[in-house]
Design a protein that fits this description.
With 249 residues, this protein is an alpha+beta fold. Helices cover 45% and strands 26% of the residues.
Length: 249
């Protein structure tokens, strides 16, 4: 399950089904999270009401027949992905409704502000979760373990794994949701790790493994892996060192 799918599932629960999520989370200008689609206006207003919103504009419209009334979110920028890179509009059916009800313009404007503020809040929440999840893992190429002997070098480096955690979910919905929540809080990190063993700068072994682990425990994961792998390599290392000694002699 990718980060995008996690975001989409969350948005569906908030009244934004089939949202198309876009994001860039590299701590650069224009980065962020946004989503587009057509969403049922009544569903959104009922959620806001249930959350305690008692704004007069919301109370006015929630009493109306909002059948076929949609919030339409389209992309205004193909370069940026933050919460202000989209346009929010009400569909024609909603506009026709306000005309038929002779709704004051300021009431429509107030509802527009309510809906836009909610959209921004949801985008910012997803952005915060995304950064928490991704920054928990090590950066690509970061050294986790290093041993430099006279003729023997052992190194473990972190590799970027991406944001798909499907391989680390059990299939049990309750347990998986707990793991997803921990991932979004930045408590679980995921990395691939590349192990290289060299004798006199000549590579004799290379391997790659992937782990989901508690944040901050990367070096412990690497050491545990080395404890499993190195005993089987001991003879290979000895042979390589022996051959090197014979070459030097």
């Amino acid at each position: 399950m990718s980060l995008r799918k996690i975001f989409e599932d969350q948005l569906e629960q908030l009244g934004f089904p089939d949202a198309e999520v876009s994001y860039s989370l590299n701590s650069c200008q224009g980065d962020g999270v946004s989503f587009t689609g057509k969403f049922d206006l009544r569903t959104i207003l009922e959620r806001l009401y249930a959350q305690g919103n008692r704004d007069q504009a919301l109370l006015y419209f929630i009493r109306q027949d909002l059948s076929d009334c949609k919030l339409v979110v389209g992309r205004s920028s193909l370069r940026y992905f933050h919460e202000h890179s989209t346009n929010l509009d009400f569909c024609d059916e909603f506009n026709h409704l306000t005309v038929s009800l002779d709704t004051p313009f300021f009431v429509v404007s107030l509802l527009d502000e309510i809906v836009k503020n909610d959209y921004i809040d949801q985008c910012k929440k997803l952005e915060s979760q995304g950064y928490e999840a991704l920054l928990a893992s090590l950066f690509d190429g970061e050294t986790v373990f290093e041993f430099n002997g006279p003729n023997l070098q052992i190194e473990v480096k972190a590799k970027d794994y991406g944001d798909d955690i499907s391989d680390f979910l059990s299939g049990d919905s309750e347990s998986d949701q707990e793991d997803i929540d921990s991932y979004l809080r930045g408590e679980i990190a995921i990395n691939s790790f590349e192990l290289k063993v060299q004798v006199n700068d000549e590579e004799i072994f290379e391997d790659c493994f992937t782990q989901a682990y508690p944040k901050g425990k990367s070096r412990e994961q690497a050491r545990n892996y080395l404890r499993e792998v190195l005993p089987a390599l001991r003879q290979q290392i000895k042979q390589a060192l022996k051959e090197l000694k014979e070459e030097i002699a």
